[in-house]
Amino acid sequence: MVITVDPELEAVLNAYAEKQGVQPESLALAALRERFLAPAPPVVPQDDWERQLLSAASDCGVSLPHSALSSDGLYE
Predict the structure, then answer these.
(1) What is the pLDDT of residues 42-69, one digit of tens each?
(2) In this structure, is residue 46 part of a structural domain?
(3) Is the Cα dihedral 32, 24, 72, 64 positive or negative?
(4) Is residue 58 part of a domain?
(5) Quick count: other Cβ atoms within 10 Å of Cβ 17?
(6) Structural domain range at position 71
(7) Distance between CA atoms of 67 and 76, rounded to whole angstroms?
(8) Rounded distance, CA 18 to CA 12, Å?
(9) Could you tell me if residue 57 is inside a domain?
(10) Overall number of domains in the chain
(11) Tag placement on the chain: N or C end, fewer CB within 10 Å?
């Protein structure tokens, strides 16, 4: 599927993506997933160890693109 956006929407996507340090395509895909896919069910800890592990974790809010995890992506 190819989606063509008008120049106004492209400018807004580029601006938001730059602020978040992600590619505009990644930002658009995340917005589409959030809008159209059902949210994942909450994780229910099964024991005290899992409860402590989940309480220590934090949501960073953004995932790195696969390219950022390659050795070339680390230096860009």
Answers:
(1) 888 999 999 998 888 777 666 777 776 6
(2) no
(3) negative
(4) no
(5) 16
(6) 1-39+63-76
(7) 10
(8) 10
(9) no
(10) 1
(11) N
